[in-house]
Amino acid sequence: TGSITITGLKGGHSSSGIVSAQANGIISAGTAGNITLLTDTISLNAANNVVSVGSLTIAPYSNGTMAVGTTGSTLNISDTYLGYLSAASYIFGSSASGNMTVNTATNFNTKNVTFISGTGDITVSSAYTSMGNGSLTLSAYRNIYNNAAITLAGGALLERADNSDATSNGTGVGICGGIYVGANISTTGGPSTLGE
To answer: Which of 26, 50, 170, 190 yields a CA-CA distance of 20 to 30 A from 87?
Structure first.
């Protein structure tokens, strides 16, 4: 009944900072205990590679960018890898991580999910659906771009752009510290809060 933190850097003969090749390879047991994985590269290849009875946090070690459900960032967590994880709740990113792309078809169902970009933007680029009562939190230092639909069946939605005085992200699009809604947001039963 304790928390686990693993920091992994690739080097030597390994192509990944954290490698878990068997079921229940990284597990927090008992009634409490969170798991935190800090790495820029990860390799998983079995169901239930990582099992947390509490929250599971995955964030870039180098405070770089992160992609969930797609590639193209410092740390990439594919939909396949998401299927190898089990936790009471999920946190992707950290207060020090950069831009975040959310492009996942995974239905987190009753699990609460948080995406954090502590130094950049969050872009939702593929429809996000949770058919259980799981909540969704998006917390960005600069902007949140809702370029695809968000559908929550019973869970709450919180979107927070924390710094309205942040410097430009260099794209010349919009202002900083904004929440941009370019697709439908639908919640049935849970409250929705969008603000700074």
So the answer is: 190
